[in-house]
Amino acid sequence: MKVMIRRTGDGLSAYVPKKDLEEPIIKADNEHLWGGVVTLKNGWRLVLPDLPRETPLPITVEARKIPDES
Description:
The chain has 70 residues and is mainly beta. The protein has strands spanning 2-8, 11-16, 21-28, 37-40, 45-47, 59-62, 64-66. The protein has a seven-stranded antiparallel beta sheet, with no helix packed on it.
């Protein structure tokens, strides 16, 4: 799914246009964000592509949602 990652006054957020959903990123597996899993405030977990650490924001990327384990 397409996800726009951007910097806000409170940190980073992810916007999913198809769902008209914007949520703060509350956890990232990698300190530089890319190539790992991020967790959104609503509980969604997304796998982000492996991009260079200095990738400018905002950027729209193709991310994969990890299904809930419940």
